[in-house]
Amino acid sequence: MDVKKLREDVFKRTDKLIKTHGPRLAGTKAALATADDLKAELETFSDWVASEDFIIHKGAFLGWIRLLVIAYIASVTLLWFKLPLYALIIAALALLILVFQFFLYLPLLDIFYPRKKARNVYGVLEPEKEVKQQIIVSGHHDSAHTFNFLIHQPKLYNLRTTGSIALVILLIVVSAYLLIYPPLTTLNLILKIVLSGGTLLVGQMWFFASKTATPGAGDNLVASALALTIGQYYKEQKSAGKGLQHTRLILMSFDAEEEGLRGARSYAKKHLKEFKETPTIGLNMDCLYDERELFFLTSDLNNFVALDVALATELATIASQHGEKVTTQKLAFLTGGTDAAELAKKGVRVTTAIGMPWSNENRSNVYHTPQDTLDNVRPAVVEQILKTYIEFIEKADQKIN
Fold first, then answer.
1. pLDDT tens digit string along 297-326?
2. pLDDT at 252 > cutoff 80
3. Would you say 219 and 358 are in contact if contact means Cβ atoms under 8 Å apart?
4. pLDDT tens digits for range 319-332
5. Are residues 126 and 238 in contact, defined by beta-carbon separation less than 8 angstroms?
6. How many structural domains comprise the chain?
7. CA-based nearest residue to 354, from 334, 335, 373, 374
8. Does the N-terminal peptide bond of residue 220 adopt cis geometry, omega within 30 degrees of 0?
9. Which residues contact 340 (CB under 8 A, 6 or more apart)?
């Protein structure tokens, strides 16, 4: 295996697509055109290829943010008008929407946002003999909204986001307290003043995300390109009589990951029967920037969805033999999710490889910013994933023979 050549192929694919289509918010012509170009490449080496369109409600995933700001200001105002019951109801509803929409990625607000078409694409390489298992190698081709908080004063990101949510919770507690103890006291006045001052912090959330998109190189077009390169490698192996014997490979590029994992959710729902009929493993990738920060997830979706610990551990062990020391870790609360979560919900043994620090206190300085360009993806992390996934796939095929 010439890993340097494979790595060069990954970078060439990624560079060409970014130069051709630019930023690719889900539901835009650029994202659909990127999917079509990926499909055209898949057709050059896959046994068969498919694209699957689905509907998203553009902007709904982050819609809870501005709703939270409006609800907070309205509730604080109602407290000054001695209407704590209404303040409590509005603030509690806003927090409930936050829980469903962001903690659990449920489509609570979707019906209020415009319908747009999005597109998953994938190619399939069939094994030489009977299919006994299938492995999905996946990334996503849509890029993210620019997060203004990660550009301006990024060290305050955690205070601005988590702090704002904490203030909403405090508002609910205070509203309930004033409902029970309504007479004006010094304490009650202080509580109202503190919550009013909190409007400055919560109000900033209105400007959390920009309408513009990032170039989306490391997050996450390089992962889609990497999946294609692995597929092309195995096509060449098959042509040389060294193909996989009992393992079907699915080379997947999801759309709308940045819209709440909607592409992976659509695919998992549509292919649930296949997952039940054929043992399925998922090798997902996201935010591959730095091999020195590489790890495999054991949980996902704000730590609410369990991923396959044994799979993550095995991949970390293999990866550690091909470069920097690699670990496993859970996905921290309030840090989002990856496409692996939707596959795991449907019974797929899956993990995600991530190549950057992952917490609200510490993330890559290019994550969700205009600096998410290909020159900020280290070649070594791509090489390490190529070697790790190819070795794992071959071992998994040998085990099932």
1. 999 999 999 999 999 999 999 999 998 999
2. yes
3. no
4. 999 989 999 999 99
5. no
6. 2
7. 335
8. yes
9. 264, 282, 284, 297, 300, 307, 350, 351, 352
CA distance 299 to 358: 13
Give CA separation, 26 vs 42, 144, 224, 295, in Å. 20, 8, 15, 27
User: For 17-75, what is each residue's pLDDT tens digit?
Assistant: 999 999 999 999 999 999 999 999 999 999 999 999 999 999 999 999 999 999 999 99
> 121 φ, ψ to 5°?
-135, 145
In a domain, 79, yes or no: yes
Same domain flag for 177 and 224: no
> Does residue 272 share a domain with residue 125?
yes
Same domain, 98 and 167: yes
Each as own residue / partner, the long-range contacts of residues 197-202 (CB below 8 Å, 24 or more positions apart, any chain) are 198/72, 198/76, 198/167, 198/170, 198/171, 199/72, 199/73, 199/76, 201/159, 201/160, 201/163, 201/164, 201/167, 202/68, 202/69, 202/72, 202/73, 202/164, 202/167, 202/168
Angle at 131 between CA 128 and CA 133, to 5 degrees: 120
Choosing from 162, 182, 207, the residue where a domain stops is 207
Domain end call among 168, 191, 207: 207
Q: Crossing angle for the helix pair 157-180 and 63-80, nearest 10 degrees?
A: 40
Nearest Cα to Cα of residue 150 among 282, 280, 287: 287
Strand partners of residue 328: 296
376-380 long-range CB contacts below 8 Å, 24 or more apart?
376/217, 376/218, 376/289, 377/11, 377/14, 377/217, 377/218, 377/222, 377/288, 377/289, 378/289, 378/290, 378/291, 379/7, 379/11, 380/291, 380/323, 380/324
| Closest of 367, 342, 330 to residue 150, by C-alpha | 367
Neighbours of 313 (CB within 10 A): 15
Q: What is the DSSP letter of 219?
A: I
Residues 33 and 48 both lie in one domain: yes
Q: Looking at the domain assignment, is residue 45 inside a domain?
A: yes
The widest CA-to-CA distance across the chain, in whole angstroms, is 84
DSSP 46-74: -SEEEEEEEEEETT-TTHHHHHHHHHHHH
195 and 299, same structural domain? no
Is residue 246 one of the residues assigned to a domain? yes
The answer to whether position 109 is within a domain reads no
Do 158 and 241 share a structural domain?
A: no
Residue with tokens 């050549």: 5
Matching residue, tokens 């997947």: 252
Phi, psi of 135 (to 5 degrees): -125, 125
Find all residues with CB under 8 Å of 83, minimum gap 6, and list them: none
